[in-house]
Amino acid sequence: MFEGKKIFVAVPYHFELPHRFKENLEHMGLVVYLLPEVKDVKISLSDTIIHGYKKFILGDRRHKAHSKAIIRERYYNDFIDSLSTVDYALIVRPDLLSADTLQRIKAKAGKMVAYQWDGMDRFPLAKNLICEFDRFHVFDSRDLTTYSNCFPATNFYFDNLSGRCENSTDNIFFVGSILQNRMREIEMLARFFTQNNFSPDIYLFDPGKKMSAPPDGIKIIHEAFSFEQNLRKLREARYLLDFKNPIHHGLSFRSFESVGFRKKLITNNELVAKYDFYHPDNIFILKDDSLEGLEEFMNKPYKELAPEIYVKYSFNNWIRYILDVGPFIPLELKD
After folding, report:
1. Residue spans per domain, the chain
2. What tens digit of pLDDT does each residue of 108-117 get?
């Protein structure tokens, strides 16, 4: 299907994700061209002042992102111009690129598609770029209502890394930044796990070294985990923790990793109960700070799902659906 086809890929350089995309696409037979990373993009003082005025006086938060995209454009265009034509172009977070850069990519691609894995309201520059793409996918169901020319898409798990793996520990794994809106729940869960003789493996990323004495069951790290470190911890664990970001209305990557790696999930995102991979033996939903039933849930074995569920939320199916190259199982978003 994809053997020998060429694809251009632009993905934010978070947690080594571009290289994971490249590995998985190459595993499927594609020739992959990754947009290079441009580090430490800083806007000028004058643009900083303009951004402040527009943000706080006019309520327009787009100027900073637009200015950074223009700076990146100078680095990207030479690379794009050096490419021959490609069959596909996949742009994740298109708001990070300027319209000119996108047009240069589109001129080289047989089909250009986008995936906005953050809500449009958070990065409003994206909505001005929908018309540049053959297909524009969003993961927040509210954006489907507002932008009728968009397509739904969930996140996924990298299936060339997953499969059934024996839990080598009974750990409950979580790694994430210190965000005040979830600290109370994290600390509550860490106490519960410790008091009930479970094994919390919880890491909070604190680059500014602001937290000096974390509660029992929580470890502080000052450097982000590499993808390999995260993968090793995930494989070893029996349970995964996930916390909803209130600015989004969608499911995180962790939800789909719990599917692909056959892990039990503890989350406060009630939206997960509407998806076809939900099973109460596999997913515990925190509600109103109540931990009633959590110990019972943790002592139950993982419930194997239907085989098509594992296929549906795999990267292999996701990329076929995003590119609209069948066969694939369509992805849908729940409200």
Report:
1. 6-156+314-323, 171-306
2. 999 999 999 8
Tell whether domain 6-156+314-323 is in CATH 3.90.220: no
Q: Strand pairing of 239-242 and 283-285?
A: unpaired
Residue showing tokens 């643009």: 47
**pLDDT per residue over 65-112, tens digit each?**
667 677 777 778 888 989 999 999 999 999 888 888 899 999 999 999
The SS3 of residue 175 is strand
Return d(Cα 17, Cα 12) in angstroms, integer: 7
**Sheet arrangement for strand 171-177:** 218-221, 199-205, 171-177, 239-242, 264-267, 283-285
Tokens coding 64: 């900073």
Question: DSSP assignment, residue 192?
Answer: H
Residue 159 CA: distances (Å) to CA of 25, 116, 224, 253, 311: 11, 21, 23, 13, 9
* Verdict on whether the full-model pTM lies above 0.90: no
Helices (H) and strands (E) in the chain, counts: 11, 12
- The domains spanning 6-156+314-323 and 171-306 adopt the same CATH topology: yes
Fold of 171-306: Rossmann fold (3.40.50)
Geometric angle at alpha carbon 67, from 64 and 68, rounded to 5°:
85
